Amino acid sequence: MSVYLTTSDIIAMTGKTKRTIQTWVSSENLNLKSIGRAESTIESVDFLKWWEDRAVRKRVNSNSDGEMFDIAVESTRLKHHQANNEAIKEQTLRGELLPVRMVIELCSAGVANCRNRILAVHNKLRSEFPGLGDEVFNRVESLHHDALSQLGNEGVPTGLEERLSVDLEKHPSAAETDMLSVG
After folding, report:
1. 33, containing H or E segment
2. How far apart are alpha carbons 52 and 58 in whole angstroms?
3. What confidence tier does 183 reach under pLDDT thresholds 50, 70, 90?
4. According to DSSP H, which parts of the chain are helical?
């Protein structure tokens, strides 16, 4: 035998008003059947299923693409992201982080300095040891050019610039906002 709940029973169970119950009937597909002017009923099993589905609908939503997500999980993820951003701001203010572009510029300047010093070595050798033959100077110069090609043509090691470009295409804002640890 089925057990039926009246509108009054639902009000007592949920603590909601009659107007709320009427809103559920009109906009949330609560299927009550009239049994008189002031009272309606629903099978208790049907109401409990509707109540559970409603709780899930309130907790789970979908984005514009129809992908489902859990509001509680997304809220937690957002709070975690915001806390990370605050930590990054604090570390930046303390001078513990530098923007990625600045690190690249500093490294490039260091590599350029190394390149210039390597290029100057064989000329210094020639002036300080004029008695060494051209064969020795040519070999030293060849070794310098090998070292320079390993450092990269523009002061950035070969392949690093391409990897950075690919990463920045995936995340365009990263060029200005990503930070690297100083210490």
Report:
1. strand 33-34
2. 10
3. very low
4. 7-14, 18-27, 44-59, 71-93, 100-128, 134-151, 160-170, 174-177
125 Cβ partners below 8 Å, 6+ apart?
132, 137, 140
Residue 80: pLDDT band by 50, 70, 90 thresholds? Answer: very high
Residue 3 burial (CB count, 10 A): 9
Six-digit token string for 105:
């510029």
Least confident residue range of 74-78, 82-86, 145-149: 145-149
Beta partners for 68? Answer: 62
Domain boundaries, given as residue ranges, for the chain: 4-59, 97-181
The residue whose two tokens read 């992201």 is 81
For 86-103, the DSSP string reads: HHHHHHHHTT-EEEHHHH
What's CA 100's distance to the chain center, in Å?
16
Q: Read off the tokens for 138.
A: 């040519």
Give residue-wise pLDDT tens across range 38-50. 788 888 898 888 8
